Amino acid sequence: MTDTTLHAPAETDSAPRARFWHDLSFWGLLPSWLLMGFALILPIAIIAAVSVATRGAHGGFAWDFNLAGYRQILWNEGWTGELEFTPQYLLIIARTFLLAGATTLICLAFAVPVAYFISRQPPGRKAILVYLVTLPFWVSMILRVYAWMIILGKDGTLPKALEFLDFPAGMSFMFNDGATLTAMVYTYMPLMVLPVFASIEKLDGTLIEASHDLYGNRWVTLRRVILPLTAPGIIAGAILVFVPSLGAVLEPSLMGGGKEMMMGTLIQLQFGGGRNWPFGAAIAMALMALVMLFLVFTALRAARREAAQ
Amino acid sequence: MSKAIEVKSVSKSFGTYQALNSVSFDIGGNEFFTMLGPSGCGKTTLLRMLAGFESPNSGSILLNGREVVDIPPHKRRVNTVFQSYALFPHMTLEQNVAYGLENLGWDKARIRNRVGEMLERVHMTSMAKRKPAQLSGGQRQRIALARALAPEPEVLLLDEPLSALDLKLRQAMRDELRTLQRDTGITFVFVTHDQEEALDMSDRIAVLGGGEVQQIGTPTEIYEEPVNRFVADFVGETNFLDVEVLESAAGQATIRTPFGLSITVPSPGHAAKGRATLSVRPEKINLGDQAQGITFEGRITNKNYMGGYTHYTLDVAGTELRASRRNASREGDTIPLGATVPVGFVAGSARVLAA
Amino acid sequence: MSLHHDVKRYPGLGPLTALFFVYLYAPLAVIVVYSFNANRVAGVWTGFSTQWYASALNNAALMNALETSLIVAAIATTVSTLIALSAALAIIRGKNVRFRKLSETVVNLPLLLPEIVLAVATLILFSLIDVQNGMLRLTIAHSAFCTPFAFLPIRARLQGMSLDLEEASADLYADRWTTFRRVTLPLIFPGVFSGAMLAFLISMDDFITSNLLSTGGSTTLPVYIFSLIRAGTSPELNAIATLLILASLILATVALLVAARGARETA
After folding, report:
1. Contact at CB, B70 and A7, closer than 8 angstroms
2. Does residue C140 fall inside a structural domain?
3. Per-residue DSSP letters for C153-197?
4. In this predicted model, what pLDDT tens digit does every residue of A256-304 receive, in sequence order?
5. What percentage of chain B exceeds 90 in pLDDT?
6. Which of B210, B229, B248 is a domain's end point?
7. Around B102, how many Cα atoms within 13 Å sit in the side-chain half-sphere?
8. Does one domain contain both C30 and C145?
9. Which topology term describes how it sits in the membrane (chain A) (predicted)?
10. What is the ipTM of this complex?
11. Which of B163, B199, B264, C69 is the most exposed place for a label (fewest CB within 10 A)?
């Protein structure tokens, strides 16, 4: 532990490199770079390579450049080698997008009023309500999805309750996009409420009063004062919900059944039981690209918003 | 008087910003020394260098004759009272005061004695087991002092320690600090932007501006005999008049004022012939029947009644002058707005400065 | 309040919020209720019974999975918290840190990537370099994706802590190590604790990565539960779920209370 950083001689700017190696920050960052380099950057680089490799005969792959993985997203190769357009995977991508988008919007629709109500409570009750929002998040995600299986499934709570009300017996609400969506909304809800709450909480109450003072009614105040000022929290919540929704695996595989796949389950399928690794890698790259596009888009919007203010 | 600190041509820049430009001065042992200046003048940087948190790009700093530039803060027998006090929030007051002594390796009994003694000295004995969050601003200030003085440092550094306190408390703490310094005999280096604080407490003041030492002297010297426009302007209020130096001899200069008088006034250094600035403090300008020395006439264009004082703005043949007058009796504030009255000042109370 | 017109009040939010909390907790309550059902078919109530708890606690496969999950989570939490702590110290307190922004992005990278992508990528890596040991695979992958969760609270805490305190410590004759041990660490401890708890939670809860990387001998709890669910809902599964829900709620409450107390004491 040298004190070069504190008592450097005159060459502050002339010898930063030498100082850097003496500074503890190098050693502080080394472990994270090693871990992330090995367990994150290297695998991502490899999967990018695999996405343009050739499918192996018995699962796995061979290092021969081949765009078949990407081609397969849109075209099916027939026995004789001719390409036939198949919308199958495009539909899965579209479904993924729609389900993730719907999840985000539904969470948002609940989160804003609930967060607003909580923020208006006296401090003690507020703390308890925030705690109650956080709590279910600590319960394992798989159990939270499972709860909806026993509610919606055959002989589940909802069909039984409907049967009691003289609906036909043996109804099931499982294995469709609605069931997947229900589970996704439920599992990601706290991720939306908490950031929205944090930004509504910071909202200066006198601004609401000023809006009313200047003849704005509740609706105008909500639209022109409350929502714009809580935009950072809403955007943060949208990212926290939308990104994992795009990559959802548990919900579609438990609630959606075998046919109603999302990109996450499609990728997983390609790597289970030695299916088609290059194709799975290509879908994974596509998913990653979608997420990156979304993140870059929101970052740019946020930057523009900031610049405008 | 031995030298506690010697600062020798110290320079420091942050990126392209020159914070200190070849600053040199000495601080005597047992002295209450103040570094006074506006924000950005380099006073805090200098203090942090004495503490060891910054190092100069060039120059050297001697502490009791020993070069300390390469000595880290934890090996310097110098302690700091931080502007934010920086009391450790997770430790009791007792633990805060003991912290430095523990790091110096004192034995337990000696630490206990010293902590008790210090807490008593700052009248905080009854609160020894409390945490800093439970204290008022003034109490935190006292603990910060006790903690910094406990290890008997060679020099105590104080970084605007009174700025967070309210007005009444600040006045009381000034006296307390001054007493503490006299009792302990430790050299205090005090940083402030508040000229009143500096004049009140210091043995000597260094006025810093633009990364350079503008003037060093006793409070009276700084106030009454400023060496340049910066010092005259920063310390106290003053009138600056554009004058022409007609003749100049040792310490005196004959000048022509904008309103036509030729007078002879003190001049630090040797004022060159030609344009210069005359500085006259408002309270040195007398009005009405009190006018004496160099007298002329002026018209009252504005007045501000301040209770103990009234500030007048005067028009003297097109030049604006400010004067203040003590309201010694209830009828003190009797000069009406718009009146033309005799105005005067004693030549010895004005100074000619380089333009 | 006698105020007739409170402009900050929007009508209907109270009932909506009440409904929201019913929505949050009712599904969990359903599991708990069904776990006490004597009937094998969950939806048909035939009487109160605790027999499924007995069989759950005697389920060796469940206990094995729990053990695996606890071991993986303990190692991943320790590794990721230490790495996150040292990264946060370097990024927030380091001087002249090169690649400060880039390093921070790298530490947070697992948050920006869909987990399934990372999971299959890691699977390919391990099969290429032939890492067969399930525990080893799991601990490495878990350590990586838990790191940002440990990092964020520590970073926030460190950033909120005034540099003055560390300088005051150095001024009072403490060397770097003493300053870290006696000032920095105690003051950022609530952040370190929250970070570690989050990392532990994320590791215990992980399904996507564990499902792809675990091997026969290293089934984690969520992967085991997934296989049970696939085999069909059963009252025993409900009992297991109830026990786990209870454990999570207690753990969460303790964690939040400790964090809140720590934050108050060192505020």
Report:
1. yes
2. yes
3. HHHHHHHHS-HHHHHHHHHTT--HHHHIIIIIHHHHHHHHHHHHH
4. 877 778 999 999 888 876 578 899 999 999 999 999 999 999 888 888 8
5. 59
6. B229
7. 15
8. no
9. Multi-pass membrane protein
10. 0.89
11. B163
Range of the domain at B322: 237-354
C114 and C38 in a common domain: no
What are the tens digits of pLDDT across the range A23-40? 678 888 999 999 999 999
- Residue B110 maps to which CATH number? 3.40.50.300
Chosen from B80, B83, B101, B145 to mutate, greatest number of chain C CBs within 10 A: B80
| Disruptive mutation site among C93, C165, C173 for chain B (greatest number of B CBs within 10 Å) | C173
Q: Residue ranges of the domains in chain A?
A: 16-84, 88-308
Give chain A positions within 8 Å (CB) of C212: 268, 271
Asked whether the predicted pLDDT for residue A134 surpasses 80, the reply is yes
Of A3, A10, A12, the CB nearest to B72: A3
Cβ contacts of C25 on chain A, cutoff 8 Å: 136
Question: Which residues on neighbouring strands pair with residue B280, listed in sequence order?
Answer: B239
Instruction: Please report whether residue C6 resides in a domain.
Output: no
Q: Give the range of the structural domain holding residue C211, as residue numbers without chain letter.
A: 60-265
Backbone angles phi, psi at A152, to 5 degrees: -90, -20
Residue C1 lies in a domain: no
Candidates A7, A10, A12; nearest CB to B72: A7
Question: How far is C239 from C62, CA to CA, in rounded Å?
Answer: 12
Assigned domain for C8 exists: no
Final residue of a structural domain among B173, B206, B229: B229
CATH number of the CATH domain containing B252: 2.40.50.100
Residues of A in contact with C177 (CB under 8 A): 1
Q: CB-CB: which of B52, B57, B73 is closest to A12?
A: B57
Question: How many CB atoms within 10 Å of residue B148?
Answer: 26
For chain B, the domain total comes to: 2
Same domain, B133 and B181: yes
A4 to chain C: nearest residue by CA?
A: C95
CB-based contact (8 Å) between C169 and chain B?
A: yes
One domain, residues C27 and C94 = no
Secondary structure element (H or E) that encloses residue C86, with its range: helix C60-88
Q: Which residue of C has its CA nearest to A32?
A: C83
Is the CATH code 1.10.3720.10 the one for domain A88-308?
yes
Residue C20 shares a structural domain with residue C101: no
Decide if B52 and A8 are in contact by the 8 Å CB cutoff: no
Q: What is the pLDDT of residues B10-30, one digit of tens each?
A: 999 988 888 999 999 999 989
Q: Are residues B154 and B254 in the same domain?
A: no
- Counting one residue from chain A and one from chain B, the pairs whose CB atoms sit within 8 A come to 16
